[in-house]
Amino acid sequence: IGKIGVFTSGGDSPGMNAAIRSVVRTCAYLKVECVGIYRGYQGMIEGDFKPMDARSVNNIINKGGTILKSARCKEFRTKEGRQKAYDNLRKEGIDAFVVIGGDGSFTGAMIFNQEFHFPIIGIPGTIDNDIFGTTFTLGFDTALNTVVEAIDKIRDTASSHNRLFFVEVMGRDVGHIALNAGVGAGAEEILIPEENLGRERLLESLKRSKESGKSSSIVIVAEGDKTGKNIFELKEYVEENFPDYDVRVSVLGHMQRGGSPSCYDRVLASRMGVKAVEALLQGKTNLMVGVQDNELILTPIHKAIKGHTKIDKELIRVSDIMSI
Ligand code: F6P
């Protein structure tokens, strides 16, 4: 392998730039050429490439977003699209690539590998932490800090007005952000898709906490939770059944994906980039770099996509105890 491509794909996450930097610098260190591919698979199809050397990634370790841009690409889902991408990679002399993204991006890479026997390694980059084969995805830790900071601020106004706040956090299919940030921010209740205990139980819990002397409360709701049809419907339900409370909704949205990465995410990204390039040069392929017990491990990419991440039951228990 003489030339490695690197790109970011799908929803961006803090730490992606640190991972790009690591891949580029590891290539430079090991005297392999490196090419940045802009806008993920879209750029691959359009031949949007730029050679990268160690200096082209100066001063990006601290930056949120991704300097290579990101995109979700429909054309890559077609055989013709993938053929175009392959032809462009060959024209550019790229022998392998590192894909930084989530499960959609890994699925694309896996199919590409099957069709063209093209060597690929994945680095998990998503704030949702919904990838099997790693305890942490890049951006998860930063997003948690962002969410906790936002909820701390909401708490100030909630307690000044004796209000109940429903705060929606990201997590299309999983409740990792909700559960961890909920415990970290001292939420009264945490609603996640993995554990739907129903609306009545929520009401009882809110009543209990009011009776116990709490004047304000914060309920964290994961985006994918189905306790109510949506967070606004949940608000109405609580208002109807519990008129004592003045209820407000705050949807944190895409600000959770931005910001300077935490030290943890920067270190993890740096480690994963080195491991990804080394793995490719050792002839490995179709794997994802992950971290478990603080050791880097490689997981077959199909397992990373298909495997379910487990919600931390202990954390649910801790949250229940803390919200007495
Ligand atoms: O990055 C994952 C995620 O944050 C999900 O939690 C969310 O549903 C989704 O991205 C939204 O992304 P977009 O608006 O870019 O489609």
Automatic annotation (TrEMBL):
Residues that, per the record, bind Mg(2+): D103
Obligatory cofactor(s): Mg(2+)
Limits of the Phosphofructokinase domain: 3-280
Enzyme Commission number, as recorded: 2.7.1.11
Main localization (coarse): cytoplasm
An example Gene Ontology molecular-function term: 6-phosphofructokinase activity
Catalytic reaction list: beta-D-fructose 6-phosphate + ATP = beta-D-fructose 1,6-bisphosphate + ADP + H(+)
Annotated positions binding ADP: R21, S22, V23, V24, R25, R155, G186, A187, E188, K214, S215, S216
Active site: D128
One Pfam assignment: PFK
Binding-site positions, ATP: G11, R72, C73, G102, D103, G104, S105
Enzyme's top EC category: transferase
Keyword annotations: Allosteric enzyme, ATP-binding, Cytoplasm, Glycolysis, Kinase, Magnesium, Metal-binding, Nucleotide-binding, Transferase
Record entry for activity regulation: Allosterically activated by ADP and other diphosphonucleosides, and allosterically inhibited by phosphoenolpyruvate.
Pathway of action: Carbohydrate degradation; glycolysis; D-glyceraldehyde 3-phosphate and glycerone phosphate from D-glucose: step 3/4
Compartmental location: Cytoplasm
HAMAP family linked to this entry: Phosphofructokinase_I_B1 (MF_00339)
PANTHER family listed in its UniProt record: ATP-DEPENDENT 6-PHOSPHOFRUCTOKINASE, PHOSPHOFRUCTOKINASE
Family affiliation: Belongs to the phosphofructokinase type A (PFKA) family. ATP-dependent PFK group I subfamily. Prokaryotic clade 'B1' sub-subfamily.
Annotated function: Catalyzes the phosphorylation of D-fructose 6-phosphate to fructose 1,6-bisphosphate by ATP, the first committing step of glycolysis.
Name of the molecule in the record: ATP-dependent 6-phosphofructokinase
Gene transcribed to yield this protein: pfkA
